[in-house]
Specification:
Blueprint (H helix, E strand, L loop, with lengths): L2 H4 L5 E2 L5 E2 L8 H60 L11
Length: 99
């Protein structure tokens, strides 16, 4: 018998005319260990991504907090000054919104 003929794949058909695939291999002990290790690695990656997202949120909050504090102080100072000037002239304080 020819060696080239032996290396050809065997095509198996069911009585319905569908092709059968190769038999699935049984999972060995190394496959089970690798599946467990990959599950743990995926969990660690998710936790690390959560820590990174939390760190970025804290960094943006840390940058925005001083800006908000300065803007609040400027608004307070402006309102305080306008109320002080209105009190000296004897008229009521009127806040005007401009668009």
């Amino acid at each position: 018998m020819d060696q080239q003929f032996r290396r050809r794949p065997v095509i198996d058909m069911t009585p319905e005319g569908e092709f059968r695939g190769p038999e699935p291999r049984r999972a060995g002990p190394m496959d089970k260990v690798l599946a467990r290790v990959s599950g743990v690695a995926a969990l660690v990656a998710l936790v690390a991504a959560g820590v990174v997202v939390a760190g970025v949120a804290i960094a943006f909050f840390a940058l925005a907090l001083p800006i908000a504090a300065v803007a609040g102080l400027i608004a307070f100072g402006s309102l305080w000054w306008r109320m002080r000037r209105a009190g000296h002239k004897g008229r009521a304080f009127v806040h005007v919104m401009r668009r």
